[in-house]
């Protein structure tokens, strides 16, 4: 009743609208108007060439110049007292003010109910978001703590392994240094005997014989050492997969 006119028929939506039914508050094309007037319950409906644009500005029936006092529930339109008798006889009628108050009350109830439900939903979402953010921050904190703890354990293990390697290196190097010194001492003594032999080239055989026996005795007294087994070292690197790393951490579950 307070709608602007439309070019299209509101019934078939195909023809061009020229006729406004006051009782139905709808625009009809020629064909739909004729069909409407052939229906028993709507044959007495009143048609105008244009729709009432603003019902508030025209609260009177344009046909009878009477105020609208009823609401025809069947036709969903306001009618005056004369239209109620002539055109809406036996229709489900109610007082206009009564209808307004009833519909307004129903609307207010629906709006309040929807508003309350939405406030509850919004509060639930707000609270849920707060809890979710708290859970996320807590998970991040725990993951960071686990990562730090694992790093510390790895660093401690690495330090222990390095200390073990260094200690083993020092011990074995000390042993090898001692063995080296012993072999160098024997080598130097042999070189000394070798030089003495060279120096005896000009000696007479009479003098050389006891000298050679003396040098032979020196050589015999030298220990015939063998090179000890050399220490070895090897670090067998462990192949760590992504799955191994993931198994060090807990599981994050999402819903």
UniProtKB/TrEMBL annotation:
One of its GO terms (molecular function) is ubiquitin protein ligase activity. Residues 4-50, 56-96 form the B box-type domain. Transmembrane segments: none annotated. Keywords: Metal-binding, Zinc, Zinc-finger. InterPro entries: TRIM45/56/19-like, Znf_B-box. This is B box-type domain-containing protein. It comes from Mytilus galloprovincialis.
């Amino acid at each position: 009743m307070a709608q602007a006119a439309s070019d299209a028929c509101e019934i078939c939506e195909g023809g061009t609208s020229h006729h406004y039914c006051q009782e139905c508050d709808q625009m009809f094309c020629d064909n739909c108007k004729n069909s409407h007037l052939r229906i028993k319950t709507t044959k007495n409906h009143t048609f105008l060439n244009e729709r009432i644009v603003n019902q508030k500005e025209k609260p009177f029936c344009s046909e009878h110049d009477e105020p609208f006092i009823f609401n025809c529930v069947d036709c969903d339109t306001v009618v005056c007292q004369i239209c109620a008798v002539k055109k809406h006889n036996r229709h489900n009628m109610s007082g206009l003010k009564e209808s307004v108050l009833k519909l307004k009350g129903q609307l207010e109830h629906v709006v309040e109910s929807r508003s309350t439900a939405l406030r509850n939903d919004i509060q639930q979402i707000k609270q849920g978001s707060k809890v979710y953010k708290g859970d996320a921050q807590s998970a991040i904190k725990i993951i960071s703590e686990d990562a730090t703890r694992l790093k510390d354990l790895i660093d401690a293990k690495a330090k222990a392994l390095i200390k073990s390697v260094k200690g083993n290196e020092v011990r074995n190097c000390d042993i090898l240094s001692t063995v080296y010194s012993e072999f160098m001492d024997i080598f130097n003594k042999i070189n000394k005997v070798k030089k003495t032999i060279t120096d005896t080239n000009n000696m007479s055989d009479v003098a050389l014989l006891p000298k050679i026996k003396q040098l032979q005795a020196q050589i015999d007294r030298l220990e015939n050492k063998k090179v000890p087994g050399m220490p070895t070292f090897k670090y067998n690197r462990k192949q760590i997969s992504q799955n191994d790393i993931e198994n060090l951490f807990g599981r994050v579950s999402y819903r």
